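Known limitations

Files may contain more than one protein. Parsers should not assume a single record per file. Below, a two-record file is shown to illustrate correct handling: read the sequence, read the token line, then continue until end of file.
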Amino acid sequence: MVELPWSVLPGSQGRGLAAEAARAALSVASGIGLKHVVSLTLTGNLASRRVMEKVGLTYEREVEHFGLPHVLYGTDLRVWRADRRAAPGR
């Protein structure tokens, strides 16, 4: 399992850059044979949660990370590849 992190400066948010970077990272992870990818964000970070869902990650559970409440999203990359073939724009 590998974590997929990202960060976008406030002046560049809302332009799809995080989703584009996440999709590219998922594609690389898939291409090198990783099985599962996860991403974390603070529970209240709705923008990051939307990006995770937009790129095909699904909510798995709440976790504590560095003493703060986070949500963990992830995907089995075999499922992610199959979903991309079925819906290429995703």
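...continuing to the second record:
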Amino acid sequence: MVEARGVGVKATSDGVEALAVLRAGARPTAVFLDKWMPNLDGVGVLAAMKADPTLSQIPVVWMSADPGQPPSVTDHLRKPFDVNALLEVLGSLCEATAD
């Protein structure tokens, strides 16, 4: 659905792969992190990103059914979320990077 709106997406199967993609040089407009992921959860990915100066400025959107969110994330999509909410958050992040 996001790609149909002209936004490129790189999906990974777990947190370890996500970090590998980022460390290989990918610089996305934003990273959407699920709290619960195999091999390395969202908390671990977020901590690694914030500890790495080359990754620490990438906006992170936290996706979880839990009401809380880490203080260092840019936004939070509480599951289950509406597709329109996802598109709204994504649109605002894309607009912010275009400025």
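Parsers that stop after the first record will miss the second one. For reference, the second record is described as follows. The chain has a mean pLDDT of 92.
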